[in-house]
Amino acid sequence: MSGGQRDDKRNRARTGNAKGSRPSTVPDVPGIAARMAAARLLAATIDAGTPLDGLTDHEHGHPQFRALDMRDRGLVRAILATALRHRVTITKLLARRLEKPLPANATVLTHILHVAAAQILFLDIPDSAAVDLAVTHAKADPRTVRFSGLVNGVLRTLARAKDAELPEMLATTSDAPDWFVERLTAAYGPEQAKLILAAHRIEAPVDFTAKADPAMWAEQLGGTVLPTGTIRIERLSGPVAELPGFAEGAWWVQDAAAALPAKLFGDVTGQRVADLCAAPGGKTAQLVLTGARVTAVEASKNRLARLAGNLERLGLDADKVNADILTYEPAELFDAVLLDAPCSSTGTVRRHPDVLWTKSPADITKLAGVQRALLDRAVKLVRPGGRIVFSNCSLDPEEGEALVAGFLADHKAKVELDPIRTGEVAGIDDFVTATGFLRTTPAGLDIGNPAISGLDGFFAARFRRIA
Ligand SMILES: C[S@@+](CC[C@H](N)C(=O)[O-])C[C@H]1O[C@@H](n2cnc3c(N)ncnc32)[C@H](O)[C@@H]1O
After folding, report:
1. What is this structure's pTM?
2. In this model, does residue 12 exceed pLDDT 50?
């Protein structure tokens, strides 16, 4: 063994490095399996950049998650969402209790502390239970066993200090990585950026698009109808599939902002419309309902199958094409195309608090490049005179305003901006920019109560092919 390897090994033993040996058994203590799974999944998200949705999927998720019963799975999801949503606050409050910062490679120890701190600071779980389970976890893992005393001391003092320190920390901290705060501030100004960051700390409400009669379905679901026609409830009280109207396909879950791009075509009755990045199909369903003849194009076979299932439940029909739009050649050009492109998803942080910790500025640049190539292709699939709506759920101008400026400059002879106007779609006036883009943020649609306010961050622009 070289000196370097020896040092590595010693370091891992000292700090609980993730590469050390794993705990072989789960102690026979109620609640410990959920906490160990939460720390493991936090490691997968933070250290390996794995999206949380996949890890916590009931069918294909992480084995440690699937080994839990439904109640514990719910608890793990709540712990992880909280730990990620308040990651900076938790890091700073833990740091106050440590004599010196934990080394960067003390990942296992750090995740144990974060899982416990999320419970102590934000969840309705007795502090003593959160502390004891974290200590049990630390003792059960050879990488952290020698730190069980530190875990106990840090978490007990955190529990004692939280009433005095948490409000001040929340008021002075942004729960986002520095790169995101900087980009948000540059794009929206300090005041709006602050409001968006505050909105990110609150779990998003649940929105539905009804096939018809939103007022009646709002009553059935116990929600309200927003000015845009979307139905909103604060929280789900059980599985979506058990809500009234699900079985008969009366509605689907769709954020209020996500429901806007498809409306920007206006009346497309009888027209041939392509939904180019279609799955899981929320916008396809909207377009079918307007009376358009819709072709849903989707590169992923599995996701296209999901779209087909969703349309079937809703009793709606569209042509379904499994193709990459970069090579897709339709028999005939379309009257209109919607490109709801794959993006960084920074507009969905309220629902997916892992996004900010799994994505980077480099990802934004890469995804902007992909979207630009897809938009260049989308123009070629629409007939001259036809319209194109480009949308995504990113808050970053590199994927929105800047991307469109470059696109228009490069296609002057072929495409013109068809500015979106206030008043053309119910409820959108606050989201129409001076240039004629649609821009929503989680700080928009303030309806008094933060728990039922806000929208996903969305960008949309509309063009007309002129040649
Ligand atoms: C943002 S999602 C679309 C959401 C959808 N429009 C809706 O409202 O339900 C982007 C989709 O584009 C698909 N996609 C990505 N690149 C593609 C390509 N080159 N061709 C076709 N589909 C693509 C992804 O698999 C993903 O399902």
Report:
1. 0.93
2. no
